[in-house]
Amino acid sequence: MYTTIDFQTLAEQLKTAGTRRRVAVARPGDEHTKEVIMRSLQEGLADFLLVADEQSREAADGIMNISPRHVTVFYEKDDVATARKAVSLVKSGDADVLMKGTLNTDVLLRAVLDKENGIMEKGSVLSHITAAEIPAYKKLLLFSDAAVIPRPTTEQFEAIIRYTTDVFRKISNGIPNVALIHCTEKTSEKFTHTISYAEIMKRAGENAYGNISVGGPMDVKTACDAESGKIKGISSPVAGNADILIFPNIEAGNVFYKTITVFGNALTAGMLCGTTAPVVVASRADSSESKFSSLILACATADKK
Amino acid sequence: MYTTIDFQTLAEQLKTAGTRRRVAVARPGDEHTKEVIMRSLQEGLADFLLVADEQSREAADGIMNISPRHVTVFYEKDDVATARKAVSLVKSGDADVLMKGTLNTDVLLRAVLDKENGIMEKGSVLSHITAAEIPAYKKLLLFSDAAVIPRPTTEQFEAIIRYTTDVFRKISNGIPNVALIHCTEKTSEKFTHTISYAEIMKRAGENAYGNISVGGPMDVKTACDAESGKIKGISSPVAGNADILIFPNIEAGNVFYKTITVFGNALTAGMLCGTTAPVVVASRADSSESKFSSLILACATADKK
Where in this chain does the record put each Phosphate acetyl/butaryl transferase domain (chains A, B) (predicted)? Predict the structure, then answer.
């Protein structure tokens, strides 16, 4: 009924659309970050605003010398200053995407979350979205939150649903199937997230989240394997056909993220949302393929300022 | 340094050892249970004590007629009575393994947990262990708890470590590498299980759990992918080489269980422990291959009464 898309196709669409997004990078010192930037430049996917301190200056200048038309370098005194400057470039509308280089994530997040100079959307909550290409699944799978919110409240679950369905609509068409993940189908006071899920199911029925299908509580197998839903007699359109998995807590989300990577040969892309522009904060252990996919996802879902 | 074993090899060892375990089955009515029993009989792996009520009588008699030397049938009036009788057969030493047929798990558990007539080990806690053959992993991986204890306390984590390492020792040799799973390497008051982990790491250093290696908090990737631990500079012998994963909560454990099955093509075997004999409680959505593996694991780790 609808097209989902892989990262390769996303990259090609970005290229042919010709709307190069402008990416502000805080402290682009390490090899992985450099590799991702060079590849994006070669493929004509984005322009870069590199914010360097003394230690990342050589790397930044090196990149600019190779592609001076598409790279600008700014110089700041230390890591904290690079984070603030990169954030300010997004705030001023000079950049469409923010990307972390060799920087402690906390340092970047402090600048992002800053009440006065940060880039949080009004009234929103910071959250993390991952998109995964898993060989054993028929389409791109979005999930959240594997990295930021430890135990979402009902309101935070609603924000997460809004963020993930927004991303879905930018890269797919059709009605997103959202699965609310738990270990059984039971709603129970013992598991407060299932109480949130019940509230969300009720509100989804009242059309509170626009045109989406929501199902749950259900486990990962019921959400992604049609056979399992049938055996259990679950008739939800989400069962066996999920586009988006909402996890009850950060441990469960993180386990999913790491397990599909290690045992499912998945290629993942991650970014932060709740901000006025997507923020790419790949971690040290991510492959450079995964970091490149994250940048593609961020550029494909960013609004042109 | 040591041999781990797959389910196929375990089955062959059981066969050649010739010590057929005796399995009490409560209400063996459904096709899957029947299939598993028939296959075990054909391969000469176990003897069966089938406890049937009116609705499962025909199935039980059918199995007995095919293999009268290795099958005994008991008749009870309803599902609750079949559960009690099957448990009593374990308690009296007539059976080495307990297996659930077509029965609500709660009904069987009530009989298992019964203070007077149940089969809990003294002072122990009921928990669930899964063993997984994952094509992308080099050895059998044990993990817990994906099905019973929602949020283990420090004491319950210690019981889970004892159960999983006991099972490991029965089917492998060498020192088990136990990974305490979290989403980062940080110990934090915000995540009470990481406080338990710190206590466990300390006690492991004092040799409280025998000859085992424990590492954590660490994520699934660090535990099972050698490259990731190296990048993060983690020197634990557990990193990249885990035999056992201990999950912080039931949601995370269950997500791992379902994810390796759906996306990692894993074959899993599960059983309950903390009881005087292993209890097989496969769920409706498990494949019959998985149910058969569960029975093999239970028989291979059961003590002969």
Answer: 83-298
